[in-house]
């Protein structure tokens, strides 16, 4: 049984800033690529994951699996995004973090991973204080 899956696309301020600096053609290519993935996801999830490359997590949190991916838009452009599947609410959330030139990918990824990782550590500390 195929359930209806809502696909939500959220973008961060960094992504908005990145995309604003692209040419009209590059912007169009980025938007089309993301929309293609979003529209395919409910019926062809495996195909979408094949288009994505999972980014490794910092080694300190090796018991978790990263939901950070890169999506190749063109020879030189990559989108850094997270894919979060929420089966309880029947939705998938694509969070767009950055769109960068291929050469800047490692640096941009480290920045995204660090900001997410800090939140993760902070959350763990809060959980520890509550319990």
CATH hierarchy, class:
Alpha Beta
CATH fold topology: YaeB-like fold
Low-confidence stretches: 123-131
Indicate the mean pLDDT: 84
What does this structure look like?
The chain is of the alpha+beta class and 131 residues long. It has a single domain, classed as RelE-like (YaeB-like fold), CATH 3.30.2310.20. 44% of the residues lie in helices and 27% in strands. The protein is built from 4 helices and 5 strands. It has a 5-stranded mixed beta sheet with strand order 1-5-4-3-2. The radius of gyration is 16 Å and the shape is globular.
Topology of this protein?
Blueprint: E1 6-11, H1 13-20, H2 24-40, H3 45-51, E2 52-54, E3 68-72, E4 77-86, E5 91-101, H4 105-130
Parallel strand pairs: 1-5
Antiparallel strand pairs: 2-3, 3-4, 4-5
Q: What attributes characterize this protein structure?
A:
5-stranded mixed beta sheet, single chain, globular, disordered C terminus, 131 residues, 5 strands, alpha+beta, YaeB-like fold
Compact description:
By secondary structure, this protein is of the alpha+beta class. The chain contains four helices and five strands; from the N terminus they run βαααββββα. The chain has a five-stranded mixed beta sheet with strand order 1-5-4-3-2.
């Amino acid at each position: 049984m195929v359930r209806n899956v809502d696909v939500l696309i959220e973008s961060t301020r960094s992504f908005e800033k990145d995309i604003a600096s692209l040419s009209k053609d590059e912007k169009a290519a980025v938007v089309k690529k993301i929309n293609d993935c979003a529209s395919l996801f409910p019926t062809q999830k495996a195909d979408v994951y094949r288009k994505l490359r999972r980014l490794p997590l910092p080694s300190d949190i090796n018991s978790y699996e990263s939901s950070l991916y890169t999506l190749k838009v063109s020879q030189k452009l990559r989108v850094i995004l997270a894919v979060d599947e929420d089966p309880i609410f029947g939705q998938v959330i694509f969070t767009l973090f950055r769109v960068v030139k291929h050469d800047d990918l490692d640096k941009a990824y480290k920045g995204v991973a660090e900001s997410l990782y800090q939140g993760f550590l902070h959350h763990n500390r809060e959980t520890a204080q509550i319990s």
